[in-house]
Protein backbone atom coordinates (compact mmCIF):
# COMPACT_ATOMS: atom_id res chain seq x y z
CA UNK A 1 0.00 0.00 0.00
CA UNK A 2 1.21 3.48 -0.79
CA UNK A 3 2.36 5.44 2.26
CA UNK A 4 0.86 8.90 2.88
CA UNK A 5 3.18 11.78 3.76
CA UNK A 6 1.97 14.98 5.46
CA UNK A 7 2.15 18.43 3.87
CA UNK A 8 5.18 20.39 5.07
CA UNK A 9 3.83 23.79 3.94
CA UNK A 10 7.24 25.44 3.84
CA UNK A 11 8.41 24.23 7.26
CA UNK A 12 11.70 22.29 7.12
CA UNK A 13 11.40 18.67 8.30
CA UNK A 14 12.80 17.58 11.68
CA UNK A 15 15.84 15.24 11.57
CA UNK A 16 13.89 12.05 12.41
CA UNK A 17 11.29 12.73 9.73
CA UNK A 18 14.05 13.49 7.20
CA UNK A 19 15.72 10.16 7.99
CA UNK A 20 12.43 8.26 7.76
CA UNK A 21 11.52 9.78 4.40
CA UNK A 22 15.01 9.23 2.98
CA UNK A 23 14.94 5.57 4.07
CA UNK A 24 11.52 5.20 2.43
CA UNK A 25 13.00 6.42 -0.87
CA UNK A 26 16.00 4.06 -0.62
CA UNK A 27 13.68 1.07 -0.31
CA UNK A 28 11.57 1.81 -3.39
CA UNK A 29 11.91 -0.88 -6.06
CA UNK A 30 10.11 -0.44 -9.37
CA UNK A 31 9.28 -3.64 -11.20
CA UNK A 32 9.80 -2.26 -14.70
CA UNK A 33 9.28 -4.58 -17.73
CA UNK A 34 12.96 -5.66 -18.07
CA UNK A 35 13.11 -6.27 -14.31
CA UNK A 36 9.97 -8.41 -14.48
CA UNK A 37 11.27 -10.39 -17.46
CA UNK A 38 14.51 -11.34 -15.68
CA UNK A 39 12.62 -12.01 -12.43
CA UNK A 40 10.37 -14.46 -14.28
CA UNK A 41 13.34 -16.20 -15.91
CA UNK A 42 14.92 -16.72 -12.49
CA UNK A 43 11.65 -17.97 -11.11
CA UNK A 44 11.36 -20.46 -14.00
CA UNK A 45 14.94 -21.65 -13.53
CA UNK A 46 14.22 -22.10 -9.81
CA UNK A 47 10.78 -23.66 -9.79
CA UNK A 48 11.13 -25.85 -12.88
CA UNK A 49 14.30 -27.36 -11.40
CA UNK A 50 12.84 -28.51 -8.10
CA UNK A 51 13.29 -32.28 -8.11
CA UNK A 52 14.73 -32.27 -11.64
CA UNK A 53 17.54 -34.64 -12.66
CA UNK A 54 19.37 -31.79 -14.35
CA UNK A 55 18.82 -28.48 -12.54
CA UNK A 56 18.88 -25.30 -14.66
CA UNK A 57 21.54 -22.60 -14.83
CA UNK A 58 21.47 -18.94 -15.87
CA UNK A 59 24.11 -16.27 -16.24
CA UNK A 60 22.75 -12.76 -15.58
CA UNK A 61 24.97 -9.88 -16.60
CA UNK A 62 24.75 -6.12 -16.90
CA UNK A 63 26.64 -2.88 -16.32
CA UNK A 64 27.10 -1.34 -12.91
CA UNK A 65 23.99 0.13 -11.28
CA UNK A 66 21.38 -1.43 -13.58
CA UNK A 67 19.81 -3.25 -10.63
CA UNK A 68 21.15 -6.82 -10.78
CA UNK A 69 21.78 -7.21 -7.03
CA UNK A 70 18.56 -5.36 -6.17
CA UNK A 71 16.56 -7.86 -8.22
CA UNK A 72 18.40 -10.93 -6.90
CA UNK A 73 18.11 -9.81 -3.27
CA UNK A 74 14.41 -9.11 -3.76
CA UNK A 75 14.00 -12.62 -5.21
CA UNK A 76 15.87 -14.12 -2.23
CA UNK A 77 13.71 -12.17 0.25
CA UNK A 78 10.58 -13.50 -1.39
CA UNK A 79 11.62 -16.99 -0.21
CA UNK A 80 12.32 -16.32 3.49
CA UNK A 81 14.23 -18.71 5.73
CA UNK A 82 12.21 -20.72 8.24
CA UNK A 83 12.94 -23.15 11.07
CA UNK A 84 11.58 -26.69 10.76
CA UNK A 85 12.34 -29.39 13.37
CA UNK A 86 15.18 -27.25 14.72
CA UNK A 87 16.81 -26.83 11.28
CA UNK A 88 16.95 -23.47 9.50
CA UNK A 89 15.69 -23.91 5.96
CA UNK A 90 17.26 -21.65 3.34
CA UNK A 91 15.15 -21.97 0.17
CA UNK A 92 17.28 -19.45 -1.77
CA UNK A 93 20.94 -19.03 -0.92
CA UNK A 94 22.48 -15.68 -1.96
CA UNK A 95 26.29 -15.44 -1.93
CA UNK A 96 28.67 -12.73 -3.17
CA UNK A 97 32.09 -13.76 -4.50
CA UNK A 98 34.69 -11.90 -2.39
CA UNK A 99 37.34 -9.68 -4.06
CA UNK A 100 40.47 -11.69 -4.97
CA UNK A 101 38.56 -14.95 -4.59
CA UNK A 102 40.31 -18.15 -3.49
CA UNK A 103 38.64 -21.57 -3.02
CA UNK A 104 38.83 -21.00 0.73
CA UNK A 105 37.35 -17.49 0.72
CA UNK A 106 34.48 -18.54 -1.59
CA UNK A 107 33.69 -21.63 0.51
CA UNK A 108 33.76 -19.47 3.69
CA UNK A 109 31.39 -16.99 2.09
CA UNK A 110 28.97 -19.84 1.34
CA UNK A 111 29.17 -21.09 4.94
CA UNK A 112 28.65 -17.56 6.31
CA UNK A 113 25.55 -17.20 4.16
CA UNK A 114 24.32 -20.59 5.33
CA UNK A 115 24.64 -19.41 8.94
CA UNK A 116 27.66 -21.51 10.00
CA UNK A 117 29.26 -19.66 12.98
CA UNK A 118 32.60 -21.36 12.19
CA UNK A 119 32.53 -20.26 8.58
CA UNK A 120 36.27 -19.55 8.43
CA UNK A 121 37.48 -22.52 10.47
CA UNK A 122 38.93 -25.75 9.10
CA UNK A 123 40.85 -27.08 6.11
CA UNK A 124 39.65 -26.67 2.53
CA UNK A 125 38.29 -30.23 2.59
CA UNK A 126 36.37 -29.57 5.78
CA UNK A 127 34.93 -26.26 4.47
CA UNK A 128 33.88 -27.89 1.19
CA UNK A 129 32.22 -30.87 2.79
CA UNK A 130 30.27 -28.55 5.14
CA UNK A 131 29.10 -26.44 2.16
CA UNK A 132 27.63 -29.51 0.42
CA UNK A 133 26.22 -30.95 3.64
CA UNK A 134 24.52 -27.68 4.59
CA UNK A 135 23.12 -27.09 1.09
CA UNK A 136 21.33 -30.41 1.45
CA UNK A 137 20.42 -30.15 5.12
CA UNK A 138 19.10 -26.56 4.84
CA UNK A 139 16.86 -27.52 1.91
CA UNK A 140 18.51 -25.07 -0.49
CA UNK A 141 16.48 -25.03 -3.73
CA UNK A 142 18.38 -22.31 -5.60
CA UNK A 143 21.89 -20.84 -5.30
CA UNK A 144 22.54 -17.27 -6.47
CA UNK A 145 26.17 -16.20 -6.87
CA UNK A 146 26.63 -12.43 -7.29
CA UNK A 147 29.79 -10.43 -8.15
CA UNK A 148 31.00 -13.22 -10.43
CA UNK A 149 33.60 -10.83 -11.94
CA UNK A 150 35.53 -11.09 -8.68
CA UNK A 151 36.87 -14.33 -10.14
CA UNK A 152 39.08 -12.03 -12.22
CA UNK A 153 42.08 -10.48 -10.46
CA UNK A 154 41.64 -6.70 -10.29
CA UNK A 155 45.28 -5.82 -10.93
CA UNK A 156 46.49 -8.46 -13.36
CA UNK A 157 43.07 -9.04 -15.02
CA UNK A 158 43.85 -12.77 -14.96
CA UNK A 159 41.10 -15.26 -14.23
CA UNK A 160 41.55 -16.76 -10.75
CA UNK A 161 41.72 -20.39 -11.89
CA UNK A 162 41.47 -22.17 -8.56
CA UNK A 163 38.44 -20.21 -7.42
CA UNK A 164 36.67 -20.56 -10.79
CA UNK A 165 37.31 -24.33 -10.66
CA UNK A 166 35.75 -24.33 -7.20
CA UNK A 167 32.59 -22.74 -8.66
CA UNK A 168 32.61 -25.28 -11.50
CA UNK A 169 32.73 -28.18 -9.04
CA UNK A 170 29.92 -26.59 -7.03
CA UNK A 171 27.70 -26.35 -10.13
CA UNK A 172 28.36 -30.04 -10.84
CA UNK A 173 27.87 -31.35 -7.32
CA UNK A 174 25.23 -29.14 -5.71
CA UNK A 175 22.23 -30.72 -7.54
CA UNK A 176 20.31 -27.42 -7.39
CA UNK A 177 19.82 -24.70 -10.02
CA UNK A 178 22.44 -21.96 -9.99
CA UNK A 179 22.25 -18.32 -11.08
CA UNK A 180 25.57 -16.60 -11.72
CA UNK A 181 25.53 -12.81 -11.89
CA UNK A 182 28.14 -10.23 -12.73
CA UNK A 183 29.40 -7.42 -14.92
CA UNK A 184 29.66 -8.05 -18.70
CA UNK A 185 33.42 -8.62 -18.43
CA UNK A 186 32.69 -11.81 -16.46
CA UNK A 187 32.28 -13.54 -19.84
CA UNK A 188 36.08 -13.74 -19.83
CA UNK A 189 35.83 -16.36 -17.08
CA UNK A 190 33.77 -18.59 -19.37
CA UNK A 191 36.31 -18.24 -22.19
CA UNK A 192 39.01 -19.29 -19.78
CA UNK A 193 37.07 -22.05 -18.05
CA UNK A 194 35.22 -23.67 -20.93
CA UNK A 195 33.59 -26.36 -18.82
CA UNK A 196 32.00 -23.68 -16.65
CA UNK A 197 31.04 -21.73 -19.79
CA UNK A 198 29.29 -24.75 -21.25
CA UNK A 199 27.25 -25.15 -18.06
CA UNK A 200 26.12 -21.52 -18.38
CA UNK A 201 25.14 -21.27 -22.01
CA UNK A 202 21.87 -19.48 -21.16
CA UNK A 203 22.90 -15.84 -20.72
CA UNK A 204 20.62 -12.86 -20.15
CA UNK A 205 21.41 -9.17 -19.85
CA UNK A 206 19.71 -6.65 -17.58
CA UNK A 207 20.09 -3.37 -19.44
CA UNK A 208 19.64 0.27 -18.47
CA UNK A 209 16.82 2.31 -20.05
CA UNK A 210 17.15 3.55 -23.63
CA UNK A 211 15.75 6.77 -25.05
CA UNK A 212 15.70 6.24 -28.82
CA UNK A 213 12.32 4.95 -29.92
CA UNK A 214 8.83 6.04 -28.81
CA UNK A 215 8.58 2.79 -26.90
CA UNK A 216 11.89 3.46 -25.09
CA UNK A 217 10.72 6.92 -24.07
CA UNK A 218 7.40 5.56 -22.87
CA UNK A 219 9.20 2.90 -20.76
CA UNK A 220 11.51 5.43 -19.15
CA UNK A 221 8.72 7.91 -18.45
CA UNK A 222 6.52 5.17 -17.00
CA UNK A 223 9.40 4.23 -14.66
CA UNK A 224 9.66 7.88 -13.56
CA UNK A 225 5.90 8.18 -13.16
CA UNK A 226 5.70 5.16 -10.83
CA UNK A 227 8.77 6.31 -8.90
CA UNK A 228 7.27 9.79 -8.55
CA UNK A 229 4.06 8.40 -7.05
CA UNK A 230 6.11 6.63 -4.36
CA UNK A 231 8.42 9.52 -3.43
CA UNK A 232 8.15 10.61 0.23
CA UNK A 233 6.11 13.76 -0.47
CA UNK A 234 2.44 14.68 -0.27
CA UNK A 235 2.40 15.91 -3.88
CA UNK A 236 3.84 14.66 -7.17
CA UNK A 237 6.95 16.15 -8.74
CA UNK A 238 5.99 15.58 -12.40
CA UNK A 239 9.21 13.69 -13.13
CA UNK A 240 7.60 12.05 -16.17
CA UNK A 241 6.99 15.40 -17.86
CA UNK A 242 8.59 14.98 -21.34
CA UNK A 243 11.06 17.85 -20.88
CA UNK A 244 12.09 16.82 -17.38
CA UNK A 245 12.31 13.14 -18.35
CA UNK A 246 14.70 14.14 -21.15
CA UNK A 247 16.94 15.99 -18.69
CA UNK A 248 16.86 13.09 -16.24
CA UNK A 249 17.79 10.72 -19.04
CA UNK A 250 20.71 12.94 -20.10
CA UNK A 251 22.13 13.01 -16.56
CA UNK A 252 21.59 9.34 -15.70
CA UNK A 253 21.89 7.57 -19.06
CA UNK A 254 18.87 5.59 -17.93
CA UNK A 255 20.85 3.78 -15.19
CA UNK A 256 18.60 3.22 -12.14
CA UNK A 257 21.41 3.80 -9.64
CA UNK A 258 22.07 7.33 -10.96
CA UNK A 259 18.34 8.03 -11.03
CA UNK A 260 18.10 6.97 -7.39
CA UNK A 261 21.15 9.08 -6.44
CA UNK A 262 19.92 12.31 -8.00
CA UNK A 263 16.44 11.80 -6.56
CA UNK A 264 17.84 11.11 -3.09
CA UNK A 265 19.92 14.28 -3.16
CA UNK A 266 17.05 16.42 -4.44
CA UNK A 267 14.59 14.86 -1.98
CA UNK A 268 16.79 15.84 0.97
CA UNK A 269 17.15 19.32 -0.49
CA UNK A 270 13.40 19.73 -0.95
CA UNK A 271 12.56 18.34 2.51
CA UNK A 272 15.00 20.70 4.20
CA UNK A 273 13.25 23.56 2.36
CA UNK A 274 9.87 22.33 3.62
CA UNK A 275 8.66 21.63 0.06
CA UNK A 276 5.93 19.12 -0.75
CA UNK A 277 7.50 17.96 -4.02
CA UNK A 278 10.85 18.10 -5.89
CA UNK A 279 11.28 21.04 -8.27
CA UNK A 280 13.94 21.71 -10.92
CA UNK A 281 15.83 23.94 -8.50
CA UNK A 282 16.36 20.91 -6.23
CA UNK A 283 17.52 18.82 -9.18
CA UNK A 284 19.88 21.65 -10.20
CA UNK A 285 21.46 21.64 -6.72
CA UNK A 286 21.56 17.83 -6.62
CA UNK A 287 23.40 17.75 -9.96
CA UNK A 288 26.13 19.98 -8.51
CA UNK A 289 26.78 17.47 -5.70
CA UNK A 290 26.67 14.46 -8.01
CA UNK A 291 29.86 13.39 -9.74
CA UNK A 292 29.83 11.01 -12.68
CA UNK A 293 33.51 10.23 -13.19
CA UNK A 294 33.30 9.14 -16.83
CA UNK A 295 31.50 12.31 -17.99
CA UNK A 296 33.62 15.37 -17.19
CA UNK A 297 31.91 17.46 -19.90
CA UNK A 298 28.34 16.90 -18.79
CA UNK A 299 26.43 20.19 -18.31
CA UNK A 300 23.73 20.90 -15.73
CA UNK A 301 20.46 20.61 -17.73
CA UNK A 302 18.12 21.60 -14.90
CA UNK A 303 16.49 25.07 -14.94
CA UNK A 304 17.67 25.39 -18.56
CA UNK A 305 14.58 26.25 -20.61
CA UNK A 306 16.40 25.68 -23.92
CA UNK A 307 17.84 22.26 -23.08
CA UNK A 308 17.89 19.86 -26.01
CA UNK A 309 18.97 16.26 -25.38
CA UNK A 310 20.42 15.54 -28.82
CA UNK A 311 22.34 18.82 -28.91
CA UNK A 312 23.66 18.25 -25.39
CA UNK A 313 24.83 14.73 -26.19
CA UNK A 314 26.59 15.98 -29.33
CA UNK A 315 28.25 18.85 -27.45
CA UNK A 316 29.52 16.37 -24.90
CA UNK A 317 31.20 14.42 -27.69
CA UNK A 318 29.07 11.31 -27.27
CA UNK A 319 26.92 9.50 -29.79
N1 LIG B 1 14.10 -1.48 -10.35
C1 LIG B 1 14.61 -0.57 -9.51
N2 LIG B 1 13.80 0.26 -8.83
C2 LIG B 1 14.32 1.18 -8.00
N3 LIG B 1 15.62 1.32 -7.76
C3 LIG B 1 16.46 0.53 -8.40
C4 LIG B 1 16.03 -0.46 -9.32
N4 LIG B 1 17.08 -1.11 -9.80
C5 LIG B 1 18.16 -0.55 -9.22
N5 LIG B 1 17.81 0.42 -8.37
C6 LIG B 1 18.70 1.22 -7.52
O1 LIG B 1 19.96 1.35 -8.15
C7 LIG B 1 21.02 1.15 -7.22
C8 LIG B 1 22.01 0.16 -7.79
O2 LIG B 1 21.41 -1.11 -7.96
P1 LIG B 1 22.23 -2.47 -7.82
O3 LIG B 1 23.22 -2.37 -6.71
O4 LIG B 1 21.21 -3.54 -7.76
O5 LIG B 1 23.00 -2.50 -9.20
P2 LIG B 1 23.94 -3.63 -9.78
O6 LIG B 1 23.49 -3.92 -11.16
O7 LIG B 1 24.01 -4.78 -8.83
O8 LIG B 1 25.36 -2.90 -9.86
P3 LIG B 1 26.85 -3.49 -9.57
O9 LIG B 1 27.22 -4.29 -10.80
O10 LIG B 1 27.70 -2.26 -9.45
O11 LIG B 1 26.81 -4.31 -8.34
C9 LIG B 1 20.39 0.71 -5.91
O12 LIG B 1 20.49 1.78 -5.01
C10 LIG B 1 18.94 0.46 -6.22
O13 LIG B 1 18.13 0.97 -5.21
MG1 LIG C 1 25.51 -5.66 -7.69
UniProtKB/TrEMBL annotation:
Keywords: ATP-binding, Nucleotide-binding. Signal peptide: none annotated. Residues 54-210 form the AAA+ ATPase domain. The keyword ATP-binding applies. Pfam families: TniB. SMART domains: AAA. One of its GO terms (molecular function) is ATP binding. This is ATP-binding protein.
